[in-house]
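Task: sequence design from structure.
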């Protein structure tokens, strides 16, 4: 806190990012007080430049943003805050405030696992005709599992052939795994949380704590 550089108005820009999808949700501002409140309550609290007052995100809408982490940039004059959100980030009801395209490269397609997952959720709910994803959902669990088995075998074969083929087959497998997740009511955050619980650093910390509590050394 003491090393952060607030501007002449006592403010620091804050980029709010979805913890799971990594989508940028909004750009806001904090002063020292709102930052302290955010850390203490573990929910975002901003400073409104137009109203010149503090405001807690979700206080009226219920769309709270639960803070996972706060990082400062290399100059200590901007923050990135990762959050788990209870609802849309934008006052318009959109998931993110950044919805209006100004320029989109023709060479690089915009993609995220979160957007693919949202698309699969929509396919499952609407079931548009002619969609392969709809076909899988209509056929049910056994068909989806059969495809995952087939794609797994193709990943093994691809690994023996070439990097390009392996990338292609892994992509097919990931797609079908995500279809399975939607079909079984599993969200991306469930997988993220499970993987986070296995994180090697966490395991080392837990192991060190265990060794300290039991007064043993690694050589034992």
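Answer:
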């Amino acid at each position: 806190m003491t090393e952060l550089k607030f501007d002449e108005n006592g403010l620091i820009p804050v980029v709010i990012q979805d913890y799971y999808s990594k989508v940028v949700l909004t750009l806001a501002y904090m002063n020292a007080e709102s930052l302290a409140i955010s850390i203490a309550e573990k929910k975002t609290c901003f400073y409104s430049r137009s109203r010149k007052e503090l405001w807690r995100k979700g206080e009226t809408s219920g769309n709270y943003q639960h803070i996972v982490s706060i990082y400062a940039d290399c100059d200590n004059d901007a923050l990135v805050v990762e959050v788990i959100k209870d609802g849309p980030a934008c006052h318009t009801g959109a998931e993110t405030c950044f919805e209006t395209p100004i320029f989109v490269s023709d060479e690089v397609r915009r993609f995220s696992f979160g957007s693919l997952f949202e698309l699969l959720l929509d396919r499952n709910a609407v079931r548009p005709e002619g969609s392969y994803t709809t076909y899988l959902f209509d056929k049910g669990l056994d068909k989806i599992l059969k495809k995952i088995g087939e794609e797994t075998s193709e990943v093994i074969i691809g690994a023996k052939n070439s990097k390009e083929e392996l990338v292609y087959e892994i992509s097919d497998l990931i797609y079908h795994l995500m279809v399975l997740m939607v079909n079984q009511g599993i969200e991306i955050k469930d997988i993220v949380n499970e993987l986070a619980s296995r994180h090697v650093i966490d395991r080392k910390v837990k192991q060190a704590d265990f060794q300290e509590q039991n007064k043993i050394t690694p050589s034992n």
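The mean pLDDT is 89.
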